[in-house]
Amino acid sequence: MDLATKEKFKWKFYRLAVLLNIIILLVAIGILALFWSPETYRLPVVLLIGLLVGGLTWYFWGQYRKTREWLDHPV
User: What residues in the chain have per-residue pLDDT under 70?
Assistant: First the structure.
């Protein structure tokens, strides 16, 4: 692996790692919001966080598959 390819892989991996950490953090915040939010805001906040986690997870898997394909079959 040459230096440019290694640098490209490093940034792809970094982006995926940060995205996965954000997803994990949002899940934890959603669980806390489920128990600590005021009753009137509980359901909307948890649903909003759940939708955000779902969207970010979908995006993460797409990027992961692209990166995995790129790693398995570099151009």
Answer: 74-75
Domain count, the chain: 1
Residue 74 CB contacts under 8 Å (≥ 6 apart), including other chains: 5
Nearest Cα neighbor of 16 from 46, 70, 2 is 70
59 lies in which domain range?
3-72
Quote the CA–CA distance of 17 and 20 in Å, as a whole number: 5
Q: What is the pTM of this model?
A: 0.85
* Angstrom distance (rounded) from CA 75 to CA 71: 9
